Amino acid sequence: MTDKELIDLAKKAAENAYVPYSGYTVGAALLTEGGKVYTGCNIENAAYGPTNCAERTAFFKAVSEGERNFTKIAVVGGKALNFADYFAPCGVCRQVMREFCEDDFIILLGKNDNKYKSITLYELLPLSFSKNNISE
Ligand code: THU
User: Fold this and answer.
1) pLDDT digit string (tens) for 51-71?
2) pTM of the entire structure?
3) Residue 14: left if φ>0, alpha if ψ -120 to 50, beta else—which one?
4) What is the CA(44)–ligand 1 centre distance, in A?
5) Band of the pLDDT at 44, cuts 50, 70, 90?
6) For the chain, does the N or the C end have fewer beta carbons within 10 angstroms?
7) Long-range pairs of 79-88 with CB within 8 A, sequence gap ≥ 24
8) 92 in contact with ligand 1, CB cutoff 6 A
């Protein structure tokens, strides 16, 4: 699975985004250590609070299928499937990533024209709080 292939899967997943309120379509594609990919989109709600981000959709799909080990996630976001700028995952999604991933987990930020940046979870969430803090 190349970075471009993973980003393309994230773009495809964004087509299912349910965004009647913001119009901001997000797609994610999460790669497991075993090479499987779980995709996700954002799913909004009239009560706003229950909205689920694309990254968490992908993580929760994967974890609910028994996956625990991940190497990379690709994300894209933009109005009406136009991924004009890089967008970085929100704070809640960063914390969910931290639950299952270490500092070296890779986040690919995709945009139009096959451009992307690769960053680590440590860069997104330094000095994080994790299960290591509360283990014996
Ligand atoms: N959103 C995501 O899907 N992922 C993020 O990391 C940030 C925000 C979604 C939530 C909402 O549906 C829309 O983008 C605008 O905030």
Assistant:
1) 999 999 999 999 999 999 999
2) 0.97
3) alpha
4) 9
5) very high
6) C
7) 79/23, 79/24, 79/25, 80/23, 80/25, 81/11, 81/14, 81/15, 81/25, 82/112, 83/11, 83/14, 83/110, 83/111, 83/112, 84/111, 84/112, 85/111, 86/110, 86/111, 86/117, 87/26, 88/119, 88/124
8) no
